[in-house]
Structure to design on (378 residues):
């Protein structure tokens, strides 16, 4: 079967620009895809650095203004891997230009931005996807399969954390390159939009919609020097965020994220407890799940530690041989491969912008509840 060429324009060459570029290069080598991705152009504002990124990853051309990239007739797909304050404007312009759009998370800085973005891609009928890549971890997908097969029965509890420790120092500035996450104007929020958004997206995928939340947030360091202006300014982001909530299916949950948990670098954990079974997964050991099945014979019943490397585990037949594991970068390759497969078949590939909007509605409710000190409906 001859493959259609798909010309990609990437915006942003930072952390995510690298993970996405790697996925664009690898997906067609490991998955049978209906498209042949071409790394057509990369865009960022510094011409020298964008040139050297393009040379390293094999992009055919560069742009320093994303508007110029969107106007190019030779670009089919715009991939947004730049900071959160750029997502809405770029995605809406790209959709209006008839491009496919993939956007990093959180979709918008808030649900109002995410709604405008969702309406734009839906009005233009362009394929769209948000990079909530943890839905593509084989172990997490296995939990989803077991849930869908009814192995857990009624769900009672969901528990999620995302713990980091990189902003503890009082001397860390806010804003600018590498530190835009601390600048509320750029990021939209702190750990709620940056970290909890991941937990919430996975949770709603596994366990359905969240209906109401009760939250606390804290900003431990109240002032920091701004990297771009040099001024000491109030810190507007939440450094830590925790909430309890109810899901539509009646289950209860706790969520916690912080950048002040000394010793933890990117500890995303999730646990789900049902009537018949429980499962636990953590990002630091991402190729395993812990699984307890109460229907096992009592004498040997216990937590199983499942190594997700076999050919019948999600995605694994595309990689090496049983026993050999894959890692973080593969989640992006899986997500891109799924997007191309779905697009080729005229289907949408979740999480779509509408799914990203659902998560932004929960993070908005979390921030609202922390302020009001009341339960808030999503
Ligand atoms: N899916 C995930 O797990 C995950 C992980 C990290 C970051 N993210 C998200 O990815 C996005 C980027 O984060 P990052 O960690 O890669 O950031 P980064 O700071 O490493 O890179 C951002 C890039 O955007 C470029 N950029 C900034 N403003 C621009 C503009 N106006 N036009 C063109 N380029 C511009 C910068 O030059 C830089 O190359 C954010 O939305 C973030 O929340 C997602």
């Amino acid at each position: 079967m001859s493959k259609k060429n798909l010309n990609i324009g990437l915006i942003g060459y930072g952390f995510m620009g690298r993970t996405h570029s790697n996925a664009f290069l690898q997906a067609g080598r490991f998955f049978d895809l209906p498209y042949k991705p071409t790394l057509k152009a990369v865009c960022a504002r510094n011409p020298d650095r964008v040139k050297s990124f393009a040379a390293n990853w094999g992009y055919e051309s560069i742009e320093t203004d994303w508007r110029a990239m969107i106007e190019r007739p030779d670009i089919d797909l715009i991939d947004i891997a730049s900071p959160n304050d750029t997502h809405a404007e770029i995605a809406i312009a790209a959709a209006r230009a008839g491009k496919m759009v993939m956007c990093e998370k959180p979709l918008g800085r808030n649900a109002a931005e995410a709604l405008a973005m969702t309406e734009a891609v839906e009005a233009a009928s362009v394929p769209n996807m948000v990079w909530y890549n943890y839905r593509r971890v084989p172990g997490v997908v296995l939990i989803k399969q077991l849930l869908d097969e009814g192995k857990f029965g009624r769900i009672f509890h969901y528990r999620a954390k995302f713990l980091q420790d990189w902003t503890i120092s009082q001397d860390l500035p806010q804003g600018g390159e590498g530190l835009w996450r601390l600048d509320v104007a750029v990021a939209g929020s702190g750990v709620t939009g940056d970290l909890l958004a991941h937990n919430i997206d996975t949770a709603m995928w596994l366990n359905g919609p969240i209906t109401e939340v009760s939250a606390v947030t804290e900003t431990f360091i109240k002032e920091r020097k701004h990297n771009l202006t040099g001024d000491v300014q109030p810190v507007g982001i939440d450094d830590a965020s925790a909430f309890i909530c109810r899901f539509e299916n009646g289950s209860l949950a706790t969520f916690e994220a912080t950048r002040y948990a000394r010793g933890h670098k990117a500890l995303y954990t999730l646990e789900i407890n049902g009537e018949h079974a429980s499962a636990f997964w953590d990002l630091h050991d991402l190729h395993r799940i812990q699984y307890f099945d109460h229907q096992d014979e009592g004498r040997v019943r216990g937590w199983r530690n499942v190594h997700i490397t076999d050919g019948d585990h999600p995605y694994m037949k595309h990689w090496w041989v049983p026993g050999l594991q894959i890692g973080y970068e593969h989640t992006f390759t899986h997500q891109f491969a799924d997007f191309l497969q779905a697009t080729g078949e005229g289907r949408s590939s979740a999480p779509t912008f509408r799914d990203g909007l659902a998560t932004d509605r929960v993070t908005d409710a979390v921030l609202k509840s922390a302020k009001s000190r009341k339960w808030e409906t999503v």
Q: What stands out?
A: Residues 134-377 form a domain with the Dihydrodipicolinate Reductase; domain 2 fold (CATH 3.30.360.10). The chain has two domains: 4-132, 134-377.
